[in-house]
Amino acid sequence: MRYFQIVVFLSGMICTTLGCTHVAEDNTEDQLSVNMIESGQYSNHPQEGIIEKVISSSAEFRSAWEAVHTGRSPMPEIPEIDFEEQMVILVMLESKNSGGFDIDGFQVRKDTTGLVVEYAEVQPGSNCMTTQAISRPYRLVSFPKTGEDIRFEQQEPIINPCE
Q: Which of these, 103, 91, 115, lies nearest to 30 by C-alpha position?
């Protein structure tokens, strides 16, 4: 037993000395500041499946805005975006059979290949009470135009424990 305690103690000392308490690199300088235009849980967008769209003109934005708000009356007023300076991202999940779903972990960051839009689907856990309505979470955000290539990365789902 004494031998085991010594091995555990020495292992801990070695880990501490060699840096097992590694702190993750701070990549906040690589993140772009984003402006939330709109976030919602319900959309009747006619396109099925996950939508990951880069919008770079007023005409594209108007079309996307109208699609996101299909069936709403009155249609919400479209925000003004300066597409000389800004671009817009639309991320929308596929239709869900209940509420409790959302998008989180949303960020735009630079890497060696261009810009990466990261997001994760939030799912209700087994203890969650949810609305019994079809939902379709979405996010519309703007950020400074860069001219770099953009790719989307959906992260692992986040389960809301609802405790």
A: 115
What tokens appear for 102 in the block? 């959302």
DSSP string, 52-91: EEEE-SHHHHHHHHHHHTTT-SSPPPPPP--TTTEEEEEE
- Does the predicted TM-score (pTM) go above 0.90? no
**CA gap 51, 91 in Å, rounded:** 6
What number of H helices and E strands is found in the chain?
2, 9
Contacts of 106 (CB under 8 A, 6+ apart): 34, 91, 117, 118, 119, 139, 141
Give 7-56 pLDDT, tens digit per residue: 334 344 433 333 433 333 445 569 999 999 999 999 999 999 999 999 99
What is the C-alpha to C-alpha distance for residues 142 and 86, in angstroms, rounded to an integer? 6
Alpha helices in the chain (DSSP H): 2-18, 58-68
Query: Which tokens go with 3?
Result: 């031998």
Q: Is the peptide bond before 74 cis (omega within 30 degrees of 0)?
A: yes
Largest Cα separation within the chain, whole Å, is: 76
d(CA 88, CA 94): 20
